[in-house]
Amino acid sequence: MKAFLLGCVAALVIAVAGMVILNSVQEPVAQAFATTGVRL
After folding, report:
1. 40 and 30 Cβ atoms separated by less than 8 Å
2. Which burial class, exposed, middle or buried, applies to 12 when counting CB atoms under 10 A from its CB (0-12, 13-18, 19+)?
3. CA dihedral sign of residues 8, 14, 17, 22
4. At a CB cut-off of 8 Å and minimum separation 6, what does 30 contact?
5. Closest Cα to residue 40, out of 27, 30, 32?
6. What is d(CA 3, CA 9) in angstroms, rounded to the nearest whole number?
7. pLDDT digits (tens, 9 = 90+) for 1-40
8. CA end-to-end span of the chain
9. Can you spell out the DSSP letters for 1-40?
10. Nearest-angstrom CA–CA distance, 7 and 4
C-alpha cells in the first residue's frame, strides 16, 4: 500500500512539473503563427 501511494504522489508531482514547464515553453498561437500571410 505504501508503494502504491508513493507512486501516486510521484505521478502527481511529475504531472504538475510537466504542466509548469510546458506552460513556460509554449507561446500563444498569435505569436507562433504571426506571419504576413496569416489572419487570426
Report:
1. yes
2. exposed
3. negative
4. 40
5. 30
6. 10
7. 999 999 999 999 999 999 999 888 887 777 766 676 656 5
8. 51
9. -HHHHHHHHHHHHHHHHHHHHHHHH---HHHHT-STT---
10. 5
User: Who's near 40: CB < 8 A, 6+ residues apart?
Assistant: 29, 30, 33
What single letter denotes the amino acid at residue 40?
L
Q: Cell numbers for 14, please give them.
A: 511529475
What's the CA gap between 1 and 13, in Å, rounded? Answer: 19
Q: What is the pLDDT of residue 17?
A: 97
> Which conformational region is residue 20 in: left (phi greater than 0), alpha (psi within -120 to 50 degrees), or beta?
alpha
